[in-house]
Write the structure tokens for this entry.
Amino acid sequence: MTDLHKKLNISKFKILFLFILLGVIIYFPLFLHLDRFVVRCFDESRLAINALEMHLSGYSLATTFNGVDDLWNTKPPLLILMQCFFMKLVGINELAVRLPSALAGLLTCIVIILFFRGKNGNLLTGIFSSLVLITSEGYIAMHAARTGDYDALLTLFMISYLLMFYQIFRAESSGKRNAYIFFFYLFVFLSIMTKSVQGIMFLPGILLYYVVFEKKTDKKLFLNLVIGFIILIIAIGGYYITRNYITKGYIQAVLENEVGGRYLSTIEGHKGNFFKYINLIIFEEFSYWITFSLFGIFISIFSKDEKIKKIGLLISITLLTYLVAISISKTKCEQYDVPLFPLFAIMAGICLNFIFESVLENVNAVNKIICLILFVFLLFYYPYSRIIKKVYQNEDSNFYDITYFLKSKIQKNENIGNCIFISDNYNGNNLFYIKILNLKGNNIKDMPYTKENEKQSFKINDKIISYKNYISDNIQSKYKVTVLEKYKEVILFRIDDIK
């Protein structure tokens, strides 16, 4: 806090109050109504089921889906282990699934603020950067910091190892340098254990920066980096070998799904041209701050402060190499650009600090704190209020009507008893709540609706849940039924007789 205390010429008590206020400001975009929406279909729901089944069977390196080894989701289990832990802590619910992501968002802000504390520039740069991050549409979003997906946790570890790498070359002693090397490789390891190959995608930019801009030829430093790399390979290799021993065919599934499959071909319809992410960032996900970020890159690279210049070069090169890498990839999921937002935010923070410093030059000590408050209010009020409005959003897609129906049964502790749930396509989001209902004493069986089972014969008194009109109509054309409950297209009915 020392540099901020001197810069604003106010007491440390008031600085402490400002940090508490900052914590409150950061809290709302990340944690407010975190459990309002039901779990999302596809990735979040699959991870939630992985975590639920691990919660019931015990911690493990291997994950399961519907009781069998999961070879569709081949990512390492770090996030799932965390979700499992929170299920034991707060129960099996949306909050447990999403807390790791929200906490990762909070820790990302803290990491950035601490990085800019003291010798690495200006604490205000870190504060501005964190405020930019939590007002970024692409970061405070589903499949990022607001849902139980990999990307917020991945982003925390990636930005941590990037900033830790910078610290290696600024260390004042060999002891500190070795500590930075240790934490650099630890965060690389955690990145890989979060989302596999994507976790190393900052490394090409880091290597390019090291070769071009770090002129130090310290043999001991180089040797320690090599030793750290060898230990990293052994640790990662140990995980994959162990997981393959537990789950036969795991390494082959990883090679097909992650190493070559997603990058060299389009998977599951996630396609787009080279400019997809650039357009998303400029016009949707980071539109308010992108101009400040671009100016921040220019300001940092041409700064007279050697430290800010090196930070700007490292982040800019890493940002560019990562952006090119995901833009070339054949599979283009929107969440692939999430790790870029802290980098853009730091660049914007450097720009905002430059502007504020220019303002302070012409302001006396008494008015500096007033200037800071006005500066933050004028720049952040609109993007922050927009994010809060987004967090308060109540409406959800009709696609999730059935999921809310199932969730309501859990909340009201209603007993459905024996029941057949007729599903349409992949329904991991519904399956999560069905599993919870079954843990509460119900016996709900998931039955996919296909051409093969369209002629399924139901028994008298069978209870059925259907959430598609065409399925309900088909069943009711063959059977006399009693509608027990109806919610939009969702119908719970009982088979009375054959027509």
